[in-house]
């Protein structure tokens, strides 16, 4: 079907100037429609931002709700990160004590000690004989009399293995693996890693992480609903426009687009506000925190969001914004039907 | 655009039968009036042409293509080839005259400079070139209707539909509007105007399709 132009006397001139350019660029037609497509998106992007600014107070309030909802999990994340980094600096030598079976001969124990000290991941192995162990125990406990009344020395031979790896939160699992491995050696009854406080901290941090994940999920859902509701109201207030758009042949994608971009703006600006909140709060607490930590350890600097994390925050918040908008728009645009 | 209705019926879910066994053929470049009492089915017939509604029976052929075979996704493309003018003109009051008329072009993805030229050409055609920056609310009823017409024709549709376009206008303005339609028809656009202004229709000397209770009771020349 041939497209029939609607010429008027004046239009002839216009068409003549347009035609040659169309002919000339026919070969790069797809690149033209691509650039046109991008320009359309660019237009909608700007237009939806202007729309956001046209109702500054209500936009600002929505943005602040989003920002607060996002800065809560973000702030907890920063806190956790700092606890982790503090303990990372506290790496120290740990010891794995191997308690050998009581019936094991000295020669066998010595052989095991040699075998272990030749390992790559072990710095040294110190051999504590039954007698030495008893002496140490007497000194420490003060139960000399009771111990001397025993018919025989009840203590086992102990090998104290110093692993190469210094212990901190990130290497804890390596050392625990080593402990399990050493415990499996013949002659070893029981192996113990002396990093209890670190293990406790690790499980506490694990708990903290789970807690933050759960809270983050809830708050992200909250943001999804906030954006969804805001967009729903925006669609409702532009009902007339949506109807006219449908009437003149706009695709659903075209009608959806400004609302999706609006959701994007809510998301990304909300995320930016959240990042700013976190930066301000961490700057505010950094003084006292540094003082506090300095009591235990010399060089500590409170960490806040770094650039990558700000970027991640913005990506997540804008995706959530678009998603919330998508859900709302899809529901409501199909509801608005031509009569 | 060439339109052929073949024994078309439309029954709404409420059970109301808006159209039954309607057949007519509107040829490419033809102009016709659609008339009948209120509730006779004029609006339903126009809605079927715009694919706002789908028929319950029969076939609607547009340039040899059965509309029934078009998917939902093809509807926007179809509507871009049809310009529509309403009695209440459906203008958006949150933007200027220019922006209202530019809508169909934006929707179709026209270039910025193209939009400017075409909008002004359409405004010129309806004689309101000096009103492009106005808010349509500031214009008179007749001017608003002409803006509606400019929007309907700006994308060079192949079919121009009008639903009671002169309903709220005095006879002189009505005649002007009708003359505009006639001008578009003269350059090859197929035009169908639904109206119950019989005296005006009689003066225009075009084909008249008359509906009564959903049936085509008359298809013929003027009077």
Largest sheet composition of chain B: 6 strands, mixed
H/E order of the elements of chain B? EEEHEEHEHHHEHEHEE
| Sequence of strands across the biggest β-sheet of chain A | 2-3-1-4
Tally the structural domains of chain A.
Answer: 2
Oligomer: heterodimer
CATH architecture of the largest domain in chain B: 3-Layer(aba) Sandwich
Q: Averaging pLDDT over every residue of chain B, what do you get?
A: 89
What's the short version?
The complex is a heterodimer of chains A (339) and B (223). With 339 residues, chain A is an alpha+beta fold.
Observed structural traits:
heterodimer; A: 339 residues; alpha+beta; Alpha-Beta Plaits; 2 domains; 11 helices; 4 strands; 70% helix; elongated; disordered N terminus; B: 223 residues; alpha/beta; Rossmann fold; six-stranded mixed β-sheet; four-stranded antiparallel β-sheet; 10 strands; globular
Report on the structure:
The complex is a heterodimer of chains A (339) and B (223). Chain A is built from eleven helices and four strands, in the order αααβαβααβαβαααα. Chain A has 339 residues and is an alpha+beta fold. Chain A folds into two domains: 178 residues, no CATH class; 99 residues, Alpha-Beta Plaits. Chain A has a four-stranded antiparallel beta sheet. In chain A, helix 8 packs parallel to helix 11. In chain B, the strands form two sheets. Chain B has a six-stranded mixed beta sheet, with helices on both faces. In chain B, strands 2-1-4-5 form a four-stranded antiparallel beta sheet, covered by helices on one side. Chain B contains seven helices and ten strands. At the A-B interface, helix 1, helix 2 and helix 9 of A face helix 2, helix 3 and helix 4 of B.
């Amino acid at each position: 079907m041939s497209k029939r132009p609607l010429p008027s006397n004046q239009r002839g001139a216009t068409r003549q100037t347009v035609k040659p350019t169309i002919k000339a660029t026919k070969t790069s037609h797809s690149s033209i429609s691509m650039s046109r497509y991008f320009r359309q998106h660019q237009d909608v992007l700007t237009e939806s931002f202007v729309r956001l600014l046209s109702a500054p107070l209500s936009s600002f309030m929505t943005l602040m709700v989003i920002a607060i909802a996002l800065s809560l999990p973000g702030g907890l994340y920063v806190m956790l990160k700092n606890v982790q980094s503090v303990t990372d600096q506290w790496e120290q030598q740990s010891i794995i004590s191997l308690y050998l079976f009581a019936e094991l001969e000295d020669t066998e124990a010595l052989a095991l000690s040699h075998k272990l000290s030749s390992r790559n991941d072990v710095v040294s192995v110190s051999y504590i004989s039954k007698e030495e162990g008893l002496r140490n125990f007497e000194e420490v406990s003060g139960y000399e009399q009771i111990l001397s009344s025993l018919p025989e020395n009840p203590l086992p031979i102990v090998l104290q293995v110093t692993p190469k790896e210094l212990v901190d939160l990130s290497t804890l699992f390596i050392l625990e693996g080593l402990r399990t491995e050493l415990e499996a050696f013949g002659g070893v009854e029981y192996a113990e890693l002396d990093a209890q406080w670190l293990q406790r901290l690790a499980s506490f941090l694990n708990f903290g992480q789970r807690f933050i994940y759960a809270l983050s999920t809830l708050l992200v859902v909250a943001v999804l609903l906030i954006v969804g509701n805001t967009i729903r109201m925006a669609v409702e207030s532009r009902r007339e426009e949506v109807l006219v758009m449908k009437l003149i042949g706009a695709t659903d994608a075209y009608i959806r687009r400004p609302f999706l971009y609006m959701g994007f703006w809510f998301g990304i600006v909300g995320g930016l506000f959240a990042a700013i909140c976190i930066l301000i709060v961490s700057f505010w607490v950094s003084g006292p925190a540094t003082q506090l930590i300095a009591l235990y350890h010399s060089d500590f600097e409170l960490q806040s969001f770094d650039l990558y994390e700000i970027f991640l925050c913005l990506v997540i918040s804008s995706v959530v914004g678009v998603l919330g908008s998508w859900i709302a728009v899809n529901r409501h645009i199909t509801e608005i039907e031509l009569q | 655009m060439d339109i052929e209705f073949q024994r078309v019926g439309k029954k709404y879910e409420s059970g109301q039968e808006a159209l039954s066994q309607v057949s007519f053929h509107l040829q490419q470049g033809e102009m016709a009036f659609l008339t009948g009492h209120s509730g006779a089915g004029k609006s339903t017939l126009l809605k079927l042409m715009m694919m706002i509604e789908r028929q319950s029976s029969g076939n609607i052929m547009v340039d040899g293509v059965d509309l029934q075979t078009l998917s939902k996704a093809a509807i926007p493309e179809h509507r871009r080839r049809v310009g529509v003018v309403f009695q209440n003109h459906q203008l958006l009051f949150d933007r200027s005259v220019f922006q209202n008329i530019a809508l169909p072009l934006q929707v179709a993805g026209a270039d910025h400079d193209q939009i400017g030229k075409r909008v002004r050409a359409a405004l010129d055609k309806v004689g309101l070139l000096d009103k492009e920056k106005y808010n349509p609310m500031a214009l008179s009823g007749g001017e608003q209707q002409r803006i509606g017409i400019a929007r309907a024709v700006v994308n060079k549709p192949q079919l121009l539909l009008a639903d009671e376009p002169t309903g709220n206008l005095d006879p002189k303005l009505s005649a002007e509007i009708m003359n505009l339609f006639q001008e578009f028809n003269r350059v090859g656009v197929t035009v169908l105007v639904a109206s119950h202004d019989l005296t005006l229709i009689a003066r225009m000397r075009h084909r008249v399709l008359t509906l009564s209770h959903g049936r085509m009771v008359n298809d013929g020349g003027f009077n």
